[in-house]
Design goal:
Helix content is about 60%, strand content about 0%. Helix 1 runs antiparallel to helix 2 and helix 3 runs antiparallel to helix 4. The mean pLDDT is about 75.
Length: about 140
């Protein structure tokens, strides 16, 4: 489950990166040859041309900064996914906590002390005492 979330985050980061690259190329400032001024006909002077503005909608420095941050974040997410899940959810089937609790119940039924259960299963002493009280033979 955690790996799937990681892959979704990576996909979203890549899509964001691709979108920013598209915006950068679309609105970025590229070196252009100087334009020669050609007098416009009188009929066209009433409607401004969309290509008349040479200023980009988003400054190239801001786009470059965004791209660097996205690359850093993408690297962090990739590292997290490579390391794998570090925390298992208590309700996750097949998680380590389910195995630890099953082992703790079995040890309590066999008569182990709460301290031994806690040390063996890696659970807190309070949890071990509760399992000991619930499952110990009387």
């Amino acid at each position: 489950m955690n790996a799937a979330i990681g892959y979704v985050l990576i996909a979203l980061a890549i899509l964001n990166l691709a979108g920013l690259l598209f915006l950068f190329r679309r609105f970025g400032v590229a070196p252009k040859a100087p334009r020669q001024q050609v007098p416009a006909p009188v009929a066209e002077t009433t409607q401004p041309s969309p290509a008349a503005s040479s200023e980009p909608a988003i400054p190239s420095e801001a786009l470059a900064s965004m791209l660097r941050r996205l690359e850093n974040r993408l690297g962090d997410i990739e590292d997290q996914v490579r390391r794998g899940p570090t925390v298992t959810m208590p309700n996750e089937p097949g998680g380590n906590t389910d195995r630890a609790l099953a082992l703790a119940q079995r040890l309590a039924r066999q008569g182990a002390s709460a301290k031994d259960i806690a040390e063996t299963c890696g659970i807190s002493l309070t949890e071990a005492e509760l399992l000991h009280r619930l499952h110990a033979s009387r």
